[in-house]
## 1
Amino acid sequence: MKKVSIFAALLAAGLVSVSAEATNLVLYTSQPNEDAQATVDGFMAANPDVKVDWVRDGTPKIMAKLQAEIEAGNPVADVLLIADTVTLERLKEAGKLLAYKSPEAASYDAALYDADGHYYSTKLITTGIMYNTSASMKPASWKDLTKPEAKGLLAMPSPLTSGAALIHAQTLASVDDLGWDYYKALAANGAIPAGGNGAVLKSVASGEKAYGMVVDYMPIREKAKGAPVEFVFPQEGVSAVTEPVGILASTKNAEAAKKFVDYVLSEKGQEGFLKLGYIPARNGMKLPEGFPARDSIKVLPIKAGEALKNTDQDLKTFSGIYGSN
Amino acid sequence: MQGYVRAGSSQPAWLFPLIILVVLILSVLPLARLAVAGIAALAHGGVSAVLADPALWSATYYTIVTAILGTLISLVIGCAFAFLLTLTDIRGKGLLSFLFVLPMMIPPQVTALAWVQMSGPSSPLLKALHIAPSLGSPQPLYSVGGIALLYGVQHAPLVYLALRSGLMALPRDGVEAARLSGASSFRVFRNIILPLSLPGVIAGAAISFVSCTGNFGIPAILGIPASIYTLPTLIFSKFSAFTSRTFGEVALLSAIIAIIAVAGLAVQDRALRGRDYRVLGLSGATATFDLGGWKYLFAPLIWVILFFMLAAPFFALLAGALVPAYGVPLTFKTISFNAFHEVLFRQAVTRTAFVNSLSLAAGTAMCLLLVTVLSAYALTRRRDAVSRAVSGLIEIPYSLPGIVIAVCFILVFAAPLPVLNVTFYGTIWIILIAYLSSFFAVSLKPVVSAFHQLDPALEEAARLSGAGFFRRLRDIIVPLIAPAAGASVILVFLIACNELTISALLWSAGTQTLGVAIYNLDDSGSSDLASALSVLIVVMVIVMMLLLELLARRLPKGVVPWRS
C-alpha cells in the first residue's frame, strides 16, 4: 500500500509537472522536426524567458488541427510558421490573424509580407526535380518526367498533405505550356501522389523511385550527407513558397509571439535558416551551400488571390486526375 | 461512511453505485454520444453524401479483406506455435514462448517500420549485405498482401494465447487411453486434440479479426503510400482535411468499423454455440507428444521463423537508425550515431513523448488499479443480472477499435464542459480518459480471477470480528490479490505505453505520445530518427517484459500471458 501511494504521488507530481510545462508559446509549423527544433532552440537562446512548445505536421494537417480546435473553442497555437502565404491569406480574411508591424520588415522586399502585418515570408522554398544518381536519365525540364524513361518511377507529394505541393500544382497548372494536361500526362506515366515532401525524398533516395518532385533543401541537404541524390532547377522555372510566419488573433501571449516573429525575421534568425540549408527571405543574405547563384534560379509567378479563390476547385481537379481521396 | 454495512451484505452501500457511475462515464456516455452523432448525421441527410463516397466503400473492402487474410496468416502461425510449444517435448519452451509473444507487445507502427527497412530497395540492411533489389523496384509491403502479412505477424500471439489455455487443460488420460487402444499420434491429434482445441482456435480467430479491423499503425505506414486506405486510416485522413461535416462523417465511419468488429465477435459466438466438449477427470498434467526424429525438423524451423519475425526486422531497424542519410549503405565507414543523439538529446518532442507516454501509462495503470480492485470485489461478490450487465459494459470499449473510442471522446469533449466551462479537447486529460475506457477490461481480468480464487470465509471472519470495509481491504483483500493486481498494472502500462491509434486522433501541442512521435518523424521524412526512437522503444518493451517475467514466480498461474 505504501509503495502504491508513493507511486501515486510520483505520478501526480509527474502529471502536474507536465501541465506546468505547458508553456508560454505554442508554435504550429510544417518544418521537418530537426529544423523546427533548431529554430525553436535558436529563439529560446535569444529569449531565455520564453519557452516554446511546437507541433509539426504537413500544412493541411496543421490547418485541420487548428480548425478542429477553433471549432471546439480551444485554439492551442499562438504562432504559425507554415508553407505558404495563400493559407495565411485565407486565415487573415477570416479574421483569425493578429496584425503586427515588425521593425525587421524594413529589410524585406515589400512583396514578401502583408502590408498590414498579418504575415511575413521567412524563406524561399522552391520545388524542382530530384533524381537518384543511378537513374538512367538526367532530367532538365518538367516535361522530361512524362518521358517513357520515367514511367512508373516518379514520386510526387500530394497537395492534400503538403502546402508546398498545392502551390506547386497551382503554379504549373497556370503555365501555358504545362497546365493540367501536364498532370494528366504524369498520371498516364504512372505517377501516384502520396504523402508530403519527406515521403518523396525517402522513396527517391532509397531507390524505390528514380525521380521526384520535391522541395529544394531536402535533396541538397541529404546529398551533402552522402545520399545518392541530385537536385535540378528545371529550365521552365520552379514554383516557390515562402513559409510565412503569423500570429493568431486568439493568442494569449501576444508579446512573446511578437518576439518570435521578430526573431525569425532578424539577421540571426535568418542565418539559422541559412545554416539549415534554406534560401533566406531577408535582403542581403548569402545562399546556402549547394545552390546555384540566386539570379540563375527562375521562379514561376503565382497570383495569391487567384490561387486562394481556386484552391477548392484545383484540389478537386487534382483528385479527379489521380482518383485519390 | 467507514464501517457502514448494509444489512445482509458485506459491501458498503456506496460501492456498487460508485462502480456504476464509473462505467457510465467510461462506457455508456461515449458510446451513446457516438450513436447520437451518427443518428444526427443520418437525420440531416449527410448520409447520402457519405454513402455515395467511393472512398468509403473501398476502405470498407480493404478493411475486411486485409483483416480476413491477416487472420488466416495469424491462425497458421499461431496454431503451429501453440501446438508445438504446448503439446510436444520441444526444448526451450519458456524462452520460445517469451520470444513469440514479443511482437504483440511492440507498437504496430514500429513493426511496420522495421519490415519496411528489412525489404525493398530502401533496406539499409539489404544494401549492407549487397542484396538490395534494383532501382525502381516497388516496395512489396506497400500492398494488401503486405498489410495482411504484418497483421498476421502482429496478431499470431493472440491466437497462440487463446489456443494455449485450452490446450493446457487437455486431459492426458484421454490421450493415453487412445494410445493404449492402439491409435497413432496422427489419429489422436485428429480425433481428440483437434476437436477439443477448436473453441480456442475460433476464439483466437475472432480476437485477431477484431484487432485487424481496428489496427492503425500498420495500414498507416504500409497502406497510405500506395493509396490503400482502411477505415481507421480513412478516419485519420478525414481529420486531416477537417471541414464542418467532419464530426458527422467520422461518426458514421466509426459506426461501420464497430459493426464489422461486432459481426466478427458474433460469428465467433455462433460458432461456439452448441459446442460443449466437457472434459472429464482433469489430471492436471498436460498431454505431451514425443516428437522423436521430427524435432530435427521442427526445432530449427521454429527458430528460423522467429528469426524472421523478430531478429531480422530489429536489425533492419537498427541499420536504419545508424545510416547517416537515407539510401546510404551501412558500412563501418558510414556508421553514424547522429540519429540516436538527435532523438535523445536534441529533440524536445521525443522527451515530451517519453514523459507523456510514461505518465499516461502510469496514470492509466494506477487509476485503473484503484477502480478494478473495487469493481472486481463488488462484481465477484454480487452475482446478479445487474452486475453481469456491468461486466458486459466494461468489455465493450475494449472490444471496439481504438479509433472508435477516440472519436467517441472527441464528440463528448469537443465543446467545453457545461457549467465548469473547461475544455478537455487538446489536453492530455482527454487521452487519459480514453485510455481508462479502452483498457478497463484488460486491467479487470487478472484481478477478477484472483478474487475468484479468494476464500470468502477469510473476509467473513474479519467482518464478524468487527473489521470495517477499509480495514478488511487493507489487511486481507489487498495483500491477497496484490500479485495479480501488480501484473495487471504492468500489462496495462505496457499496452498504454505503446498505444498509437487513440492518441493519433487526440494529441495536440505538448501531448504527443511515443506512438505519435514515431509516426510523425517517419511522415516528415526523418526515417532515421523514427528508427532510432523505435529501437529505444523495443528495448524498453523487452526490459518491461523481463520485469514481468521476474515477477511471474510470485503470481497466480495464467496472469503473465506467455508463461505456462
## 2
Amino acid sequence: MFETMKQRVACTLSLALMSPLAWAADTLPEGNQPGNYPLNLQAPKSGIAEQIFNLHSMMLVVCLAIFFVVFGVMFYSIYAHRKSKGAQAAHFHENHVVEVIWTVIPFVILIALCIPAAKTVIAQKDSSNAAVTVKVTGYQWKWGYNYLDDGIEYVSALATPRDQIDNYDGKSAAKNAHYLLEVEPGTELVVPVGKKVRLLLTANDVIHAWWVPQLGVKQDAIPGFIRDAWFKADAPGIYRGQCAELCGKDHGFMPIVVRALPQADYDKWKADTKARLALAKDDPNKVWALPDLVARGKGVYEANCAACHQASGQGVPGSFPALAGSKVATGPIADHLGIVLKGKAGTAMSAWKQLSDTDIAAVVTYERNAWGNNKGDLLQPAQVKAARQ
Amino acid sequence: MSHAQDAALGHDAGHGHDDHHDHKPAFFQRWFMATNHKDIGALYLWFSFFMLFFGGLLALGIRAELWQPGLQFWKPEFFNQLTTVHALVMVFGAIMPAFVGLANIMIPLQIGAQDMAFARMNNWSFWLMPPAALLLVISFFMPGGAAAGGWTLYPPLATQFGIGMDLTIFAVHILGMSSIMGSINIIVTILNMRAPGMTMMKLPMFCWTWLITAYLLIAVMPVLAGAVTMLLTDRHFGTSFFNAAGGGDPVLFQHVFWFFGHPEVYIMILPAFGVVSEIIPAFSRKKLFGYGSMVYATASIAILSFMVWAHHMFTVGMPVTAQLFFMFATMLISVPTGVKVFNWVATMWRGSLSFETPMLFAIGFVSQFTFGGFSGLVLAMAAVDINLHDTYYVVAHFHYVLVSGALFSIIAGVYYWLPKWTGRMYDEKLGKTHFWLSTIFFNITFFPMHFLGLAGMPRRIPDYALQFSSFNEIASIGAFGFGLTQLLFLWIVVKVTFLKKGEPAAAKPWDGAEGLEWTLPSPAPYHSWDVPPTVK
Ligand code: HEM
Ligand SMILES: [Cu+2]
C-alpha cells in the first residue's frame, strides 16, 4: 500500500502545484448534474460532437414532424370515424397512386438525411495528421494510457471508494459529485486543447469501448487488434465518460476522464509527469528482502488482483478461484509466475505482463506469504525479467 | 378425408372414425403426446406466458437494483446474469414461442386445413422447448452462475464464464432446432394445405407474414448455431475462431452473430405485423388497405434485413465505406416499414371504428412500434450511433419494438382470438383496464430511458453516476407497475379458459372480422375442417 500511497501523494502534490492554473471548473456538463432531468445529448465540446448533436436534432425534428402528420391522421380517424358516432365504413382498399407517393416521399427524405450524415461519418474516420498519439489499452477493469511519442505510460482506474458504492446494508457513505466518474488522481488522459489527438486502441483481455460523450468518440478496444479514433477538444476542461462495452463484472466501474489543457500547460504536465514517472521507476536488478517485497506486493495486489480474488484471497466460489491455500500459490514458484505473466486462456485471468518486474515479483511473493500461505520463498525482479524472455 | 391422410396427421388409425365427433384423447395423451394443432398451440402459448413472467421477474431484479445509485441487492456479476438471461428468456422463451403458438392454432383455421402438415414433428418442436428453458434456469445454480455476457454472448468475454455458458449454448442449439422444425411445418402447411380456391394473394396477412418469417428462421437459426458452436469449441477444444492470440478474430463472432441477430428481430416483428393487419380491418369494418403492397413490403423488409447486420457494429471500427453502406441500407428499411404504417392508418381512415381491447392493443402497437422505428432511424445514422450505441437509448429503442411492438401484438391477438379458442367472451372492462395500465406503465418505464441514453448512461451496468438517478427511479416504478399489470392479464385469461366465466361467444363475435376462422363455431371444434371449405 505504501508504494501506491507514495504515488498518490506525489500525484496530488504535482496536481496541487499546477492548480493555480485552474483550467476550468471541474463540473459535469450543463443540465447533467445529480438530481436534474437531463433531456438531451451532453453539451458538445468538439467539432465532431457538435455535428453529432446537430444531426440528432435534425433527425428529431424530422421524425417528430412525420409522427405528428401520420398519427394526426390516425387520431383524426379515431375521433371522427367512430362507429359510436355513426360513421359508415367507406369501401376503398387500394390506391396505387397514393401508395407510390408514400413510398417515394420517404425515400427522398432519406436521401436528404443521408448527405449530412455521410459527411460526419467521413470526418470521424479521418484520423490523419494528429498532434499527439496515445495508445489506449483496455484491461478488466482499467484503462492504460501510453503516450507513444514521449514514453509516458500509466494506468487509470476508478477512484470512487467501495464504501460509497456498496449499499447492501443501506448505510453507504455519501456519494460525491463525480460518483463513478472519477479516476485516481494524476491518471486522467491529459491532452492539449485544440489539437488532434489520435488514439490507438487495443485490449488485454476482452472487448472494451472507450467513450467520452462530449468529445464525440466511442471506439471498441479489441484484444489482438489495433483500432484508431481521434478527437479534438475545443475548450480546456475535464470530460468524463465510461467503458461502453460489457466487459465483465466491473464493466460499470470503468470510468474515463480526459483533462484538456492549453498547450503550455500540457507541455509542463508532460515534463513533470516524465520526471515523476522516472523517479518512481524501480531498478529491476535491486535485490529485495522478503518483508519489503511482501509489503509492496500487498499494494499491487489490492490495486490489481483483489477485484476478482478478493482482498481476503478467498476468491468468489465458482467464478474466481481462491488463492489462500491454492495449488498455484503454494506450488512451484515458476508456475505461479507463469500464470501471472501469461494469464490462463478461457478464464478471466488475463496476462499481467504490463506490470513492472518489481511489481510482479512483489505480488507473487505477497500471494505466497499471505492468508496462511507460508511458503517463505520470494521472487526477485531480476527473475521476472529473465522469465519474460 | 382418407385414412392414409389421417395417419399422416398423426391420428391413431383405429380412431379415425371418431374424428368427426370431436373426440379428445385422454389427458396424458392429449397434453404430453399432443399432435392436435390447437393443443400444441395452447401448450406453446402457456409455455411462453410462463416464460414471460419468469423473464419479467428477472427484469424486475434489474430494475430493483437500478432504482437507486449504489449496489443494493446484487453483486455486479449476478446483475450481468440477470440481464443476459432476461433477454434470452424473453426472446427465445416468450416472444418467439408465443408467435409459434398463434401460428399453430390460427394458420390451419385460417387456411381451412385440418391440422399442421407434420403433426408428429409439431409435438417434437414444442417438447424441445421446456428442456431448453430448464437449461437456462438451472444455469443460475451452476458454479459461476449463468451466462453473463449479454444476450449477444460476445467473445472473448463469453469464453471466460463457467459451465452456465455451456448450458446456454446447448439451450440455444435446442431452441434453434425447435424453431427450424416449426418453420418447416408452417411453410409446408401454408404452401400445400390451403383450402381449394385460396390463392396466395388471398392468403390472410397473418399467414403471409408467418410464411416469410419461417423462411427467415430457416435461414438464420443455423447461423446462430454455428456461431455458438464455434464459441463452444473455442472454450473447450482448443480452437481459436475468436481468439486473436491463436489467429482468430473476435469481431468475426459479431459479424456472424448479427447476421443471425438482425433478421431475428424481424422474426419477432413480422408476425406482429400480421396480427395487427387482421385486427385493424376487423375493428375498422373495412378491408385492409393495400393488401398487395403489404405483402411486398413484408418481403422487402425480410430481404433487406440480411443486408444491415453491421449497423450493430458501428463502433468496432469498420472502414468508412462499410459504415456508409450499412447506414444507407438500414435507413432504407424504413421505406417498406413506413408503407405498412401508412396502410394501417389508411385502413382506419373513413372506417367505422370501435375500440374493443384487441383494437386498443393494435393501435398501441402501431403508434409505439412506430416510435421505436424512429429511434431506430436515429440509431441508423452511423455518426449519431457513435454516441448512442450501448447506452440506454438502445434499451429504450428495442423495448419499444419488442414490448409495445411484439408483445402488444401478441396480447392483441390473444384477445382477438380468445372467443374462438374458448367459446367465451373475456371481460371487456378488465381488458381495457389491462390495456391502459400496460400502456401507461410501459411508457413510464421506457420513455425516460431515451433521456438516460442521450445523457450518457451506458447499458448493462449495475450502478450509475448520480446524474442518472432521477430518470432511473421513474423507470423502476414503471417497471413494477407494468409487471403487476400483467397479472391482470393472467386473471382475464384464466377466467375464460379455466373458470369458464364470460358470455358465450358467437361464431363471429366481431362484426367486422373476416376470414375462414370465423365461419367455424366458437369454440372451434377439436377437429376442424374435416371437409375443406371452398374459397371463392
Ligand atoms: C416490462 C418488461 C420489461 C422490462 C422492465 C425490461 C427491462 C429491461 C432492462 C432494464 C434491460 C437493460 C439491461 C441493461 O442493458 O443493463 C433489459 C434488457 C433487454 N431486454 Fe428487457 N425488459 C422487459 C421486457 C422485455 C421483453 C418483452 C423483451 C422481448 C424480447 C425484452 C428484451 C430485452 C433484451 C434483448 C435486452 C438486452 C439484454 C442485453 O443487454 O443483453 N425485454 N430489459
Ligand atoms: Cu470495459
